[in-house]
Amino acid sequence: MNKHTALAHGDAFDAPGRLEGEAGGTPEDHELTVRNERFDRKALVPRHWHSGDPVATAWYNSVSASLPRGEAFFIDTLREFRDQVPPKLAAEIKAFCAQEINHTREHVAFNRLVSDHGYNVESIDQGIQVMLALTEGRPIEFNLAITIALEHFAAIISRHLLTHPEYLEGADPVAAEIWRWHATEEVEHKGLTYDVWLHATKDWSDWKRWRVKTLLAILITRKYFKNRVRDALGLMEQDGIPRWKGRLKLAWFLWGRPGMMRRMFVEWAAILKPGFHPWQHDDRALIAKWQSPYADAVMPAE
Which residue, 63, 70, 172, 186, is the most exposed by fewest CB within 10 angstroms? Predict the structure, then answer.
């Protein structure tokens, strides 16, 4: 694995108005680590890189194609608060942005591989652009709540990828390692956006904070998931799978076997509870456990 750059927290963060997250917050000794991984651009990743299965491949390709523009939105949103938060959070925002920039770079490269296999993924990126255009002119706290919802969804998926090896079993090793690396950092920074939210909304009532966060979590996650299904079906159609057949196969993949969506639904729904905080589920041991089993597929940072 490449050398890691660790960013220390700095001064302790003591957020006033913390009732929403009082039951459990980000551990004080938790640090974000920027892992500047660069994966082999010349690797012969097959068209159906996930187990030779066009359904599994289409689902992950749909998610990957949505990430670069979405992560740019997260970066822009968090940067708006960098000068308004205590030094500890400011340092974490800097690390978060570095992590997301690296994720974007690697998924752009991965999406290029997908395109090289003849898939049209441009419409997926355009769909994300249309969705995010709805945030223009909204209060910055609105965009922050959207980021919380999508980061929570990403963190739950990431936890499952890291704790259930069967989800990536049979996948091309280079592609699988991109997802494991990304998942590790998603879990690691899962509480940052929420801590910034608690600081940004410290003058709000508990009721308003919960109502805005919960409503947007339901609306945005539903829309994002629905669009990922739509785009995965579109990718399967490009493989000659009729939409009706693809819909049945994808539903079984997501809700039947291996059934990631079925397994993660209750964990996702935790965001709807009063007093929610992402670090009420402590994943530090999971982060520490991550080691690249495919060292030859990881190239030194340029």
Answer: 63
Q: What is the pLDDT of residues 122-131, one digit of tens each?
A: 999 988 988 8
pLDDT in tens, 9-55: 333 333 333 334 444 689 988 999 999 999 999 999 999 999 999 99
- Contact present, 275 and 23 (Cβ < 8 Å): yes
Look-up of token digits 């998931």 = 225
Structure tokens at 43: 């690797």
pTM of the model: 0.88
163-167 long-range Cβ contacts below 8 angstroms, 24+ apart: 163/286, 164/258, 164/260, 164/263, 166/258, 167/258, 167/260
The DSSP letter of residue 272 is: G
CB 80 within 8 A of CB 4: no
* Residues 113 and 77 sit within 8 Å (Cβ to Cβ): no
279, 159 contact by CB (below 8 A): no
End-to-end CA distance of the chain: 14
Give the DSSP letter string of 165-190.
GGGGTTB-HHHHHHHHHHHHHHHHTT
Amino acid at 102: N
Q: How far is it, in rounded angstroms, from Cα 129 to Cα 264?
A: 27
- The helix or strand, by DSSP H or E, that contains position 149, with its residue range, turns out to be helix 140-163
Which residues neighbour 182 within 8 Å (Cβ) at sequence distance 6 or greater? 103, 106, 107, 158
Q: Tell me how far apart the alpha carbons of residues 185 and 95 are, in angstroms, rounded to a whole number.
A: 10
Where in the chain are the domains?
37-299
CA gap 282, 49 in Å, rounded: 32
- Rounded distance, CA 211 to CA 250, Å? 33
Entry field: residues in the chain: 302
What does each C-alpha distance from 80 to 68, 73, 77, 192, 266 come to in angstroms? 19, 11, 5, 14, 32
Whether pLDDT at 193 is above 60: yes
In single-letter form, the type of residue at position 35 comes to R
